């Protein structure tokens, strides 16, 4: 079997951004762009559907 190269070109690039951070960023963006207004109810099920993520990801973003 051929040996694998030891340089950086063979390494797996890992994305350090978690799904929680992505959801949090989307929510912040929605607030800053006035898509979410003061007093708006944030219904977990609706957020999950709109963002295409699980309830766990939405809950983690709120912590």
Automatic annotation (TrEMBL):
Domain of life (superkingdom): Bacteria
Classification via PANTHER family: GLUCONATE OPERON TRANSCRIPTIONAL REPRESSOR, TRANSCRIPTIONAL REGULATOR, GNTR FAMILY
Presence of the UniProt keyword Ribosomal protein in the record: no
Alphabetical list of Pfam families matching this protein: GntR
Keyword DNA-binding in annotation: yes
Annotated HTH gntR-type domain residues: 17-63
Taxonomic source organism: Pseudomonas syringae pv. pisi str. 1704B
Swiss-Prot/TrEMBL keywords: DNA-binding, Transcription, Transcription regulation
GO molecular function, one term: DNA-binding transcription factor activity
Annotated InterPro entries: Tscrpt_reg_HTH_GntR, WH-like_DNA-bd_sf, WH_DNA-bd_sf
Protein name: GntR family transcriptional regulator
